[in-house]
Amino acid sequence: xxxxxxDARILELVQKNNRxxxxxxxxxxxxxxxxxxxxxxxLRSEGIIEADVSxxxxxxxxxxxxxxxxxxxxxERSDIIDRFxxxxxxxxxxVNGFYVTxxxxxxxxxxxxxxxxxxxxxxxxxxxxxxxxxxxxxxxxDRVKSGFALPIEVPSED
Length: 158
What we know:
Layout: H1 5-16, H2 22-29, H3 33-45, E1 65-73, H4 78-89, E2 94-99, E3 106-112, H5 115-127, E4 132-139
Antiparallel strand pairs: 1-3, 1-4, 2-3
Helix pairs in contact: 1-2, 2-3
């Protein structure tokens, strides 16, 4: 995957606001709206832009309780890992899931309507799964920063 300085500027802009029109992006990046649309299409088709999303307020949509959950598996076998990854992907309560190194095998970002709902989720998702050795939950007090914006390295001009 390759991108140039203009693509880098476009990527910076759409990460901050994916609702900008091609006209606005093109104006800032020094392109016509049509050229901007072509570049955006290429960036998407090459997988540089994976998705266009909106970041919601958990509280506004009825999920004010947020947790980070560290999960340790009983054994690290590929079939167990794959099965747990599939469970993560199919669970609406798990907003983000990461397979990690260190003290835990997975870190999950989970939302719930109430602590009672989280307890029901915990029983169903973790305690009924014999492949899970341990779970540590950290309740989020304040969401200080939320987003998916990555720092964009601007390619040098050679």
